[in-house]
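Hi support team,

I've been running sequence recovery on a batch of backbones for a student project. Most finish fine, but this one hangs at about 90% for roughly twenty minutes before it completes. I'm not sure whether the input is malformed or the queue is just slow. I've pasted the structure tokens below so you can try to reproduce it. Let me know if you need the job ID as well.

Thanks,
M.K.
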């Protein structure tokens, strides 16, 4: 591998039980070290060119069905009106996902050893500039897949999983806007999710993951804003404390009662600070909660995440101004 390049392997996994991404920053966005600084991982130019591997057929899906399902998933992200991201199919290649060749390749690999991993995204990054050189997605051919419009029993929906992984390919980390329950014998079952970027997959047969939610839309628009994005939306910022001390890793959710939408972020530094961009102007209710519906390492590769506190709400409705920030919001939590 060229020493100028940093290969981030398995940077984002969509798993049946849990996932283990690299550290994610704000939103969550991915952050990578480059020349002594932390850089937000994103594409410098669009359209993002991607290739389909000749190894793009697996149980339940042929090559043309794979290409069509992936194209639909790319089109869903591209259709977000407040985002400027775009994608382009560059061609078919004999290359496979995971090779450091400068090509962003999507295709199947047979990985029965990864028996809880449906798909994985990896990145090749310039060590000096932090520029994203390539991003590959592999789908695990050891599972049975479906492209049926209504889903198929006991088969995982390719379009849903592709939509999640393309979010990673674009630079988004995981969202904690989901609810799960523990399975007997281990693992979690998803009861509901308000973000495609929630790290745990819906059960086989479900197509619930084909639709972007408010959190996904805010995230991709923050990374690749359309011309009027900042002027038409607002932000919220503040701190979370417990016993007078800042809380790291708290999940902060802004709820818009007028639209019924949720957008979340985390306290991401030692000062317990959070910031949420891309909010619709108007009143919001703020909820702070510990990470408890997925494993902590689905969101952070760091020690010190505090999960020992009860759900709390801001003591006031927070008004988000159009084109501006709400001003400091402080939420105090108490131990469980």
């Amino acid at each position: 591998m060229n020493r100028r390049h940093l290969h981030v392997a398995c940077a984002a996994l969509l798993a049946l039980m849990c996932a283990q991404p690299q550290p994610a920053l704000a939103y969550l966005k991915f952050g990578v070290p480059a020349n002594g600084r932390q850089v937000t991982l994103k594409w410098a130019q669009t359209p993002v060119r991607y290739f389909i591997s000749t190894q793009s057929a697996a149980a339940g899906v042929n090559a043309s069905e794979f290409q069509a399902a992936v194209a639909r998933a790319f089109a869903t992200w591209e259709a977000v009106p407040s985002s400027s991201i775009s994608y382009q199919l560059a061609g078919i290649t004999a290359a496979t996902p995971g090779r450091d060749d400068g090509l962003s390749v999507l295709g199947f690999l047979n990985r029965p050893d990864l028996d809880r991993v449906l798909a994985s995204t990896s990145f090749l990054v310039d060590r000096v500039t932090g520029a994203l050189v390539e991003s590959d997605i592999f789908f695990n051919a050891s599972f049975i897949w479906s492209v049926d419009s209504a889903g198929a029993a006991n088969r995982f929906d390719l379009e849903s999983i592709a939509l999640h992984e393309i979010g990673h390919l674009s630079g988004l980390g995981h969202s904690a806007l989901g609810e799960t329950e523990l399975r007997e014998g281990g693992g979690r079952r998803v009861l509901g999710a308000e973000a495609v970027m929630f790290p745990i997959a819906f059960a086989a047969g479900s197509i619930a993951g084909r639709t972007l939610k408010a959190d996904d839309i805010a995230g991709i628009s923050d990374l690749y804003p359309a011309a009027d994005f900042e002027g038409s939306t607002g932000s919220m910022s503040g701190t979370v404390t417990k016993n007078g001390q800042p809380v790291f890793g708290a999940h902060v959710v802004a709820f818009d009662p007028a639209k019924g939408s949720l957008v979340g972020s985390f306290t991401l530094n030692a000062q317990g600070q959070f910031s949420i961009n891309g909010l619709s102007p108007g009143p919001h209710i703020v909820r702070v909660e510990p990470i408890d519906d997925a494993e902590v390492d689905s969101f952070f590769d760091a020690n010190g995440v505090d999960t020992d506190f009860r759900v709390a709400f801001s003591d006031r409705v927070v008004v988000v101004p159009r084109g501006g920030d709400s001003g400091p919001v402080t939420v105090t939590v108490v131990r469980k």
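--
Follow-up from support: It reproduced on our side and the slowdown came from queue contention, not your input. The first strand starts at residue 5 and ends at 15. No action needed from you.
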